Fold these 2 entries.
Entry 1:
Amino acid sequence: MNAPPASPRRTRIRGVWLQASLAIAAGTLGLVPPGEGAMLIAPIGPRADAESMRWATQADARLIGRGPYAGAYFVWGERARLALPALRHGSLLFSAAFFGCGTTPEKTT
């Protein structure tokens, strides 16, 4: 026996859910930090904010500037070198381009 065809209303609702899911996925991908480039270090624990710059510089990140709240910093670095220390210290990494920061830091010689 065949199932009855889906109603037009039900099909529209599925279409809206699909479009919303795709929009959310695209927005989330914009937050993923680049392999190398400008990133936001966002501490999420009470202890994490005081340690952010220490472990980030130990992972060869270069400071670009202060982030949107205390303990958050914009840095230039490699995601592979920063990801594990960030998790160990209760911080998240985000793409700084999402926050309007995407310039290359000046080279120091």
Note: Residues 5 and 11 are 10 Å apart (CA to CA).
Entry 2:
Amino acid sequence: MAQAKPIPVPLVPPPPSKKSKDRFVIYLTIATLIFLVTGFGTAWYYLKDSPQRMFRSAYVDSGPVVIVVDGWAIATRMSIETSKSDSDWATTNKRAIVGILQKTLAESDPKKMLTPAEVGALQSTLKDASNSALGTTKIQGIIFTDFVIKQPV
């Protein structure tokens, strides 16, 4: 007699119990909380001691200035650099400062304003003239925001 071979029966895993589903949600919630706390803690640690940008200078705009000297036309706009604590002083004395800047530009030789080095020297001259005329050292620099010079035709 021939022996009957057993027929393999596929094993079907039992359906997950409600208890294991609840554990998965709990573990997922714990992992998410750990991730968030770690992320916020890391961000706080690195940002707490970051230096805050403190601006030490203030700038007052001169407005447009146009000067004609010996047929040369100079059109410029300047910013007057002062310390932050002196910005109110510069705003109050803006008219006097701009008048001094115009006078100094008018007395300057336009032929010596053609290269960047000469313009840099002119900026120093303007700063020194403004400080000496006002009897102060509050003006830290004169910066050309626009500078156009036209030779006579």
Note: The first strand starts at residue 57 and ends at 69.
